Amino acid sequence: MNKEDVTPDMDYYFNGLNMIFSRIDDDAAIENNSYMALQKEISRLGAPVIANEENPLKRAIYVNIMTYLHMYFNKLASRKHEIEFLESSRQAWVGPLFVREMVEQGYDEQNFFFYALKGLIRNGAKSAYILIYDKPIKYEKTDNWTVPDKLYLAAYYNGVVRESYEPDKRPVITVKDGIGDIVTGTNRRVVTYSLFDQDNQYGILMCECDESGIFTAYITSLQLSISIHFLEINKYKHEVEASLNDALSELEKKNQVLEFVSNSDPLTGLMNRRGLVEQALDRIKLNEGKRGYAIFADLDHLKQINDTFGHAEGDKAITAIADLLKENSSEDALIARIGGDEYLILDFDEDKLTSNPVDVIKNAYYELNKNSDLPYYIEASLGMTEFICRSGMKISDLLNMSDEVMYEAKKFRRSSVIK
């Protein structure tokens, strides 16, 4: 319809409509003035024209124009609400995903802030900078916020590059130097949000976004703050677990030392009687049905060595026999000093039985004495008994049987060990 087709008193109506339609092209006007307000404006302009029009045909035309305009604005309003609904639905879905992605990183700070940037970009940030304190700062409700001496750049996105730093490699931002080196360019809308949870201040988020995205960025900053709180919990949990593991490791070492002390002979390094019994039962069970042998050894004339040459030489003789027994037994043999001058070998190497183990040991201390410049002989009386490993076997029975054979051998020892 052209303006010339109706009466001149419609001029102000068309002028008003032109003004209204020009406002539709202005996004800011649409944001600040609802479509309902525009419809009221149309009704305000059109109502007196319709009321004063005497021609029924023209009045019907004016009514149809207003009806069409109202329908048009209703459709615009519906579309705007639909877009807002879709955006709110997207935010409702993106928010939990944003938090979940960060929390899933546990105590890995570099990955945590990398996913924080990912979420900010997904929510429309043109650029973003996450700056945190070295440690959270606690503020009471009555405390005034103070400018920190320095912040650490945990991660940034400058529109092209996305970077997240390891904790010990973060660039330092000081009050003196400012942020000019990281936020470059002009005419940029950068909004700053405090990252906090209850009384704890973690740092700040600097986010570049459109005016329409400021509220979304604010919500995102709150979600990031909550996630940082979980990060701090995970870091503390990891530190506690690491400390606990260190303590358990240290305790295990001390237990091993205590076990060694309680099961070992400090002079020779061999097992003592207790250590032998504990391991022998497990070894017999492991070798059930197999042959083994026990050798009881008694160092000859230890008292004579102590009385004649001193206890230091006696200790030397005790150690020499221990070394000799170790060198002439299999690697898996159990060797123990079970008394002052008494030793017991439990060996489960059946191949050793092809040659007489007692003769092997006698030949060994014969060679030792032949090449030694000690003023005394280092010898031992030996008694051996063979056995079949079986459940319920008593170590005391092996000791008694070997002991009996050893005492028979003791009848043939030297009368004196002095050379």
Number of strands: 10
Percent in strands: 15-25%
Q: What integer value in Å does the Rg equal?
A: 47 Å
Tally of separate helices: 11
**Proportion in helices:** 40-55%
The best one-word shape is rod-shaped
User: Mean pLDDT, rounded to whole units?
Assistant: 81
Structural class: alpha+beta
Instruction: Compute the separation of the termini in Å.
Output: 141 Å
N-to-C order of helices and strands: HHHHHEEEEEEHHEHHEEHEH
Task: Report on the biggest sheet.
Answer: 6 strands, antiparallel
Spans where pLDDT lies below 50 across 5 or more residues: 1-8, 26-32
Summarize the structure in words.
The protein has 419 residues and is α+β, with helices and mostly antiparallel strands. 53% of the residues lie in helices and 17% in strands. It is built from eleven helices and ten strands. The chain has helices at residues 11-24, 27-32, 35-52, 56-103, 109-122, 214-263, 273-286, 302-309, 311-327, 357-371, 395-410, and strands at 127-138, 150-157, 162-164, 172-174, 190-197, 200-208, 291-299, 334-337, 342-347, 380-388. Strands 1, 2, 3, 4, 5 and 6 form a six-stranded antiparallel sheet that branches.
Briefly, what is this?
The chain is built from 11 helices and 10 strands.
